[in-house]
Design a protein that fits this description.
Blueprint lengths: L1 H29 L5 E5 L3 E8 L14 H23 L4 H24 L2 E9 L2 E2 L5 H27 L15
Helix pairs in contact: 1-3, 2-3, 3-4
Length: about 180
């Protein structure tokens, strides 16, 4: 079972990383920086921009250097936390798939930061002049993976509340003996 959990985690992480890097390579090879290709007018463009900050452009400033080191350390800590969580969690394929997506996305953006000191973003959704910040495959994998992990934690807590037992199968109600 231990091999299975790490095979799924590592396989999804590697697949996510590869898909992210190939998609970014295609954008870099075909679309000059700051260019735009309209795919669905008024809704979706392909762009080629760099984000030195975090998700949604947070700390995206070219006049500061320390954010590179902050995000480098944050990625290393997150990868360590994912591996520690995988080591201690009960094997559930959906959980390990989600953790693999988060890990692969984090490593994909880390590769960009190490190569370019910024992340390549290229998916630009908008309605009129209201733009969602541009993002990439790695960001998508991180968000979907995090949503799945949160849903599984919520579902687990809901299930515990419904049957009146905690994670060890013990009754939660005071004074009730198992």
């Amino acid at each position: 079972m231990t091999r299975q959990r790490y095979a799924l985690l590592g396989g999804v992480a590697a697949g996510t990383f590869a898909l992210d890097q190939v998609s970014k390579w295609l954008v870099l090879a075909t679309l000059p920086e700051h260019s735009v290709i309209t795919v669905i007018p008024g809704f979706f463009d392909l762009v080629n921009i760099r984000n030195r900050g975090a998700a949604f452009g947070f700390l995206n400033r070219s006049d500061i250097e320390w954010q590179f080191w902050l995000f480098l350390v944050a990625t290393i800590v997150a990868a360590g936390a994912i591996i520690a969580l995988a080591r201690g969690a009960r094997y559930e394929p959906a959980l390990f798939t989600a953790l693999g997506a988060i890990l692969g996305g984090a490593l994909g953006n880390l590769a960009d930061r190490l190569r370019f000191r910024a992340v390549v973003d290229f998916l630009d959704f908008y309605i009129g002049s209201l733009h969602w910040p541009a993002f990439n495959v790695a960001d998508t994998a991180i968000c979907i993976g995090a949503a799945v992990v949160c849903f599984m934690m919520w579902r687990k807590e809901s299930g515990q509340a419904a049957d009146g037992k905690d994670a060890r199968g013990k009754n939660q109600q005071a004074g009730v003996k198992s």
